[in-house]
Amino acid sequence: MSPDAMITHFVGAAAVVIVVAHAAGRLARWMRQPVIVGQLIAGIALGPTLLGAVAPAVARQLFPSAIAPMLNALSQLALVVFLFGVGYELDLSILRQRARTVVTVSLAAFLVPMAAGVGAALLFREELARLGAPAGMPVSAVLFLGVALSITAVPVLTAIVRENGLAGTLPGVIAMSAAGLIDVMGWAVLVGALLDAGGHGEPHWGVRLGLTLLFTAAMLLGARPLLRRLLWRRHLDASYRLAMLVGFACASAWVTSALGLHVIFGALLAGAVVPREAGGTLDAELVRPLNDVSGLLLPFFFVISGSNVSVGGLDGAGLVVLALVTLLGVLAKVGSGLGAARLCGVGRDDARTIGVLLSARGLTELIALNAGLQAGLIAGPLYSVFVLMALATTIATQPLLALVRWLADRSGRRSGDAGYGDSPERAGPVTAPTPGAG
């Protein structure tokens, strides 16, 4: 295929991806689901599951193999911009208000699903290997499968919290704060798994770990004051600052990718060290365009993710594993979050809400799965299983919240109180973090 033909195909494919994904996201929002649900379903539908099965000739014409590297590169750029914004918006100062409850809930909601995933990987290593796990189930693969069950999606959770009127309430604030800590712990374990899974042509994992720690220290100690000095000068054009910061994020992502990790870690780290405004507030002139750009480009990531999912490729064993993984993922998250919140004195209905909210995995799960797929820690039908599990747990969050409200209202009617949906407990002066793309 000539370069001109490749560009023509890419532009046509991009038009289809953007229109279909955003239309599906709009439909999902109308159905009271996060936008990501519709966009992920659109990505899967444009892959071998639907388009490739119903009209394979159209699929080959629309997405020829020659443009796959271009689509993949654009999806990685979308991840860098998105996760740079997530890192910038991550605010753990909220822990000062309810530190004990948030830390307890986050530890429980991370360690229990992590232990469940690790235990399942060790107990069923042969069955998982037949579905796409590495043969022999190395430590890196075991850790990765544990992380895959323990992640909570902060951006999707933020959208769910806001759409259900839970922003600023006790369960909303605790769930948002705990989810931030859960993802920090999850990314840390994922770094270890990817370091251990390095290819034969890469330096020893100990060397890469040392270089990673040095780079992280340099970013945490030196990048913020340098950025403030260079880019926070008076009368500096906001578009210029945005361009320089996105370039900074791409450079940081390049470093972590060169170290054998993934671009996602460099992008997150870059966002975390960007200076905030006076009082620790976010710069709206930075957050808004980052969300707009990542929201426009993320459908390309969903298409790349969906192109590796084949629902028709799941046999009976794969469907059983999907059902078990989904059930285990929901029970481990909801049960651990609910139990930890109750131990910290949170009311029954609020504790149920916290557990349900923490079960939403969404986009963050897909990003981790994409990193594991590129590192060879997951493949084939097993990758499809975990993508569908992420989709199912995200879709289930809204119905489960409705069930929690119904139980609370029923209990309130019996006791003569107002329903939970009428008067959720407020969290005082604490407010939920500013959301990223949902």
Which regions have little confidence, pLDDT < 50, spanning 5+ residues? 418-423, 428-438
Instruction: Write down how many β-strands occur, each being a DSSP E stretch of 2 or more residues.
Output: 0
Give the helix level as a range of percent: over 70%
What are the secondary-structure elements, in order, as H or E? HHHHHHHHHHHHHHHHHH
- Which radius of gyration do the C-alpha atoms yield? 22 Å
* Approximate strand percentage: under 5%
Mean pLDDT: 85
Distance N to C terminus: 37 Å
* Helix/strand structural class: mainly alpha
Descriptive account of the structure:
The protein is mainly α. The chain is 74% helix and 0% strand. It has 18 helices and no strands. The chain has helices at residues 3-30, 35-45, 51-54, 56-62, 68-89, 99-123, 125-131, 139-150, 154-163, 170-196, 205-231, 238-258, 263-273, 284-307, 316-343, 348-357, 362-374, 380-415. Helix 1 (3-30) packs across helix 14 (284-307), helix 8 packs antiparallel against helix 10 (170-196) and helix 11 (205-231) packs parallel to helix 13. The protein is globular and about 70 Å long. Residues 418-423 and 428-438 have low confidence and may be disordered.
